[in-house]
Design a protein that fits this description.
By secondary structure, the protein is mainly beta. Helices cover 0% and strands 46% of the residues. Strand 23 and strand 24 form a beta hairpin. It starts with a strand and ends with a strand.
Length: 677
Amino acid sequence: MGRITQYQSNFTVGEIDPLLVGRIDIQQYASGLSKAQNVVVLPQGGFERRPGLRFMLDLTSHVGGSFTTLDAFRLVSFEFSTTQSFMLAFVKYDTTNTRVFIFANGIQITNINGTGADYLVCGLGDIDLDRMYFTQSADTLILVHEDMAPKSIVRGVNNSTWVFSTIALTIPKIAYTLATSNPAGTITPDSLDGTVTITASASVFTADHVDQYINVLSGFGRARIIERESATVVKAITELPFFKVDQAIANGAWELETGYVDAWSSSKGYPRTCTFHEGRLYFGGSKSLPNTLFASKVAEFFNFKSAEALDDDAMLVTMNTDSVNAITALRSGRDLQIFTKDAEFFVPQADLSPITPGNIVIKNATRRGSKEGIKPVMVEGGTLFIQREGKAVREYLFSDVDLSYQANNISLLASHLLKTPRSMALRTATSTDDGDLLLIPNDDDGSMAVFSILRSQNVVAPAEFITDGSFLDVGVDIGDIYTIVKRTIGGSTKYYLEMFDDQRTTDSGIQYFSGATAPDQAKPSNTTCGSLGHLEGKAVNVIRDDFVLNNNTVSSSAITIDVAPTTYVEVGLPYVVEVKTLPAEPKLSSGVVVSRKRRIVEATTLVDRTQNLAVNGFELPFHSLPYTLGSAPATFTGRKRLAPLLGYSDTAQLTFTMTQPLFATVLAVEYKLSTGQ
C-alpha cells in the first residue's frame, strides 16, 4: 500500500468525451474533467457555478395555447453600436402570425409604433424560423429564407419605432429558355453607351420584351430593354456599346434575344443566406440556384441587376466545382467566406483591390461542410461553424504560415456534448484576460453545450448546461445572453424567454427589490411574494436577505416566506451543479498504477469567493461561529481540507456539488491517494 499526492492546478480542458477517459497518455488529461454540469470553466483555470436565469416573458400566454410547430422561435441580435443594441425574439404562433418581441438592456420595449402592443407583427409566412438567415447594416436588419422574398426590419427615430417590410429589390435575370427572333425593319439608337433610346422602323416591341436583349449581329452592340414606350420605341441599358449612333442598323443585322427571367421568385425560390462585404450586400444560394453567389451594386444594396459590367456593377457567379455545393452561409472576414453543405470557399481580393465583376474568383479551401440553419460566428480572427453532421465545431482560420485556410476541429475532446445542435451564439469577452463563451443548444435532450474560449492561450473548455426543461435557442446582445426555454408547468408545456444573470442562482427566477422593473417585482412589505404564475406548482428555491429558505412551492401564483424582506428576495427553480474529476491514475516508481484499488483519503480544495460546496457528499464548512441558522455564509477565499474520505474504488474521483443556491468558484484541488493491491 502506498500514499500518493496528486494536484490538479486547472480545469482548462473542461469535460472530455467518455471515449477518452483511458487516455492518460495525452497532455490534456491532467487538466480535464469527466463531468462539468452547470458550471463555466474559467480561462484562468478554475470553474464557477453558472449564472442563474432571469425570467423575462411567457411567450405562450400571448395566444393562450400551444404552438403549432416546434420550429417556432429565433433569437436575433440587433447591434447598432456598443451603447445601442437589442435582442429580437421571433415567435411563430401559426402560419400567418409571427411576432417579434424587442428587448434593450434586459428590459422589454412596449408600445411598439404607438400601437400599445409589446410586439412587432411580421408577415413572414409559413417559413421555418430556424432556417431564416439574417445580417445587419446600421439600423436595417435583412431577413432571408429560400421560401420568402427578402424582408427588412428598420429601427426608426427611437427604440419603440420599428418598420417591417418586404424589400424592393432589383432582381437579376437568368437565362431560362433562350430564343431569338429577327424582326423586320431597322433600329436606330440615340447614343452609343449607357441608357439609350432605340427606335424601330416597324412595330416590333411588346411589354414582354422588358428585361430582354437587343443584339447587333453585324457590328457590335448589346442592350437590355428596361422600358417600353411604344411598339416602336424602347429604352435600354447597354452591356456592349453600339457602333452607330443616330444611324439605322439594317434589317437582318440585329435580333431580339428573349428567355431571361427573374432569378428569384416563388417558384424558383429566394436567397437563403446573406452578408455585407466591401460595400455590397451578398446573397448566397436559392432553391433553383443553390451554388450561386449574388452581389449587389456597390453602395446600392438592393440593386442586383447587372448593367454594363463596370467595377461597381452587380455580380452573379456560379461556383464551378465537381459537385453542387449548396451555399449554407456567408461571412465577411479577412475575405468573403462561403460555407456550403460539402466544403468551404472564399473570395480573395486581387492584389488588395476591391472585388469586381472582372476579377472575382471563388476558391475552395477545405472540405468539411457546414450544418444548414446554424449561422457561423466570428471569434478572434477566425470563424466558428458546425460541421454538417452536427458533431464538431470547426474554426475556419487563415494561416499566415501556410498561406491557406484551415478548418480545425476545436471540439474534438468533447464531441459527446454536441448531440443535435440547433443554433449557436457567441458572447465575446470584454477584457483581454477573459474568455469568449460559445453556446450551442441541443434539440434531442434540451441541453446546452458551452465552450469557454481564449484562443491566445489555446483554451477551449467545454461544459454542459441543463435546466428543469429544455433549452431551445440562444442569442447574445453584446454581453447579455438570452435563451428560449421549454418547461412543464402544471402539466402544460410553456415557452419562456429568459436571460442569464451573473447575480442570480436560480432558473426562471424573479427578484423582489426596491426600484425593480418588470418582470422583477417591488420588494413586498409583507410575507407574500406574488406574480409567480409562470412557476405554478413548482418547488422553488428562495433566498431572502441572504437567508436560504427551503421547502417552498408556488401556489396561486405566490409563496409565503417567514419574514418580510429587508433588502431583497429571489425565487426560482433549483438547478443541479455537479463537477467530477477524471479517474485518478497515480504513478509509482514502478510506473502507472492501473490495476490496484485506490481511495482518496484527503482532499484540499482551493476556492475563491465561495459560499457553498460539497465534495463527495461531504459539505465543506463555510460558516463562522456563531451564526444564525439559515443565513448564507460570507464568501470565503482560501483552502478547505476534507478528511477522511472512505471507500476504495477502481477510479478514485472527486465529485463537487452545490446543494444551496449560493456562489462557488473552485480554482484547484490537491488530494492524497491510498493504493491497495
